[in-house]
Amino acid sequence: MRLRTHSHQSMSVGKVNVTPLIDVVMVLIIFFLIVGQMAAEQGARVKLPTSASGRSDAVAGDRVVISVIAATTPAGLPAATIMVDRTQLSPRQLQDFLSTKLASASALNVIVRADRGLDYSLVQPTLDACRDAGVSSVNLIAERERGH
Amino acid sequence: MALLRRHRTSRETYDLHYGPNMTPMVDVVMVILVFFMASAAILGPTWFLRAALPPAPKDAATTPAKDDLLRMRISIERSPEGTVFVRWTEAKGDAAPQPSPKAFATIAELKQRLNDLVRQHQSWRMVVLIDPRPNVPMQDVVTVHAACQALGIEKVGLASAAEKIGE
Fold first, then answer.
1. Which has the minimum average pLDDT: A34-48, A67-81, A107-121, B23-37?
2. What is the pLDDT, as a whole number, of residue A110?
3. So what's the ipTM on this one?
4. Hey, are the CB atoms on B149 and A55 less than 8 Å from each other?
């Protein structure tokens, strides 16, 4: 009678193949990084105004996303913070930044994400900085109302 | 002759019959799909509202318009109690601007008037300049802008601060 011994092949059947697991984990990491980056750049702290209509198509070409975030002064008065690429800018700095961008780009799409609760007087310096830099139009971003 | 026959392993036999293993690819594709859905949910669906930024006219009062476009200037105001109301002027071509019949109209009344004007004229022959007062929240500016957008009025602009000072 011949005794059965475990061959090399039968041993390998019991091993766990970790390749798909590593694939999935790598993809998870990459997507967490991308989504996190996008959320930070787009200014997740901005409560967007809601709208029932607008253009759904994304703007093509070079784009600059300006977030106008609600803030308060040390005295407790309402204020606005202008953020571009996670950098805080004054209206004057924003104007210089846009002028430089316009000099190098043939067309520049400026997207303004302004908080819905901000008074217009706090958003106007941003729009005037765009205007003074030579930007002829901006795209205001609004959250879609449910059902639209 | 039999010695020349190559012996196939079980793995080679499996590959020959069933092709490459698709499981890792399906795993990755499913994860990509789920994360695109998740990222779309996090960022939320949005609308783009294009607003022109016309420079402040230096001699608008003395230079008549050379086209026959219907120009509408919508002023958004907010009472101390927080009620938002609008008033507007309409001017076709070089005609003098005509004020709205009601001094304190609601946004619903403005929408009705815009609707009537779009029916009389065409939306592409209308130019709207939104002029919010400093204490008006952005939500109301966007609401008025969206009302124009919903009627197909593409030429919508926001008044500059310099223009307000010059009023």
1. A34-48
2. 92
3. 0.71
4. yes
User: In angstroms, what separates the C-alpha of A81 from chain B's closest C-alpha?
Assistant: 15
Helix axis angle for B107-120 and B138-150, nearest 10°, is 30
Q: Would you give the DSSP letter of residue A33?
A: H
Domain ranges, ordered by start, for chain A: 10-41, 50-144
- pLDDT tens sequence across A79-132: 999 999 888 999 999 999 999 999 988 788 899 999 999 999 999 999 999 999
3-class SS string, A74-119: CCCCEEEEEEECCEEECHHHHHHHHHHHHHHCCCEEEEEEECCCCE
pLDDT digits (tens, 9 = 90+) for B118-151: 998 888 889 999 999 999 999 999 999 999 999 9
Check: CB of residue B54 under 8 Å from CB of residue B63.
Answer: no
* Residue A18 near chain B (CB below 8 Å): no
Contacts of A53 in chain B (CB under 8 A): 47, 146-147, 149-150
Question: Which CATH number is correct for A50-144, 3.30.420.270, 3.40.50.1000, 3.30.1390.20, 3.40.720.10?
Answer: 3.30.420.270
Sign of the C-alpha dihedral computed for residues A42, A107, B155 and A119 taken in this order: positive
List the 95-134 stretch of A: residues with Cβ below 8 A of B. Answer: 111, 114-121, 123-125, 127-128, 130-131
- Mean pLDDT to the nearest integer, B101-113: 86
Q: 3-class SS at B81?
A: coil
Q: Which residues, at least 6 apart from B130, have a Cβ–Cβ distance to it below 8 Å?
A: B51, B74, B76, B141, B144, B145, B156, B157, B158, B159
Q: CA nearest B129: which of B55, B78, B59, B66?
A: B55
